[in-house]
Design goal:
- By secondary structure, the chain is of the alpha+beta class.
- It has two helices and four strands.
- A four-stranded antiparallel sheet has the order 2-3-1-4, with helices on one face.
- Helix 1 packs antiparallel against helix 2.
- The longest helix has 14 residues.
- The protein is globular and about 35 Å long.
Length: about 90
């Protein structure tokens, strides 16, 4: 499955959420990660994110697609998520 993770969390937890997310997904831009995961990896990611956030003030969204081929991206401006040496 192809997963897009979008988060809006308290500044005290941003680095923790990003660290967990980058273990599974590729950082695309501020508060957005994406990538291919198995069902087990997705469940583990959700559990780890849930253990880091405060559900009373943070928000995390997961968009799940069957595969990346069903995703059409249109980018304007800078490509923030990929290291320059990969471009």
């Amino acid at each position: 499955m192809y997963v897009i993770l979008v988060y809006d969390v308290n500044v005290r937890r941003v680095a923790k959420v990003l660290k967990v997310g980058r273990q599974y997904l590729t950082w695309i831009q501020n508060s957005v990660l994406e990538g291919e995961l198995t069902g087990a990896q997705f469940e583990k990611l959700k559990r780890e994110i849930a253990s880091v956030i405060d559900e009373s003030e943070d928000s995390v969204l997961f968009y799940v697609l069957r595969t990346e081929k069903w995703l059409e991206k249109h980018r304007l401006g800078l490509d923030k998520g990929e290291p320059e040496w990969l471009v």
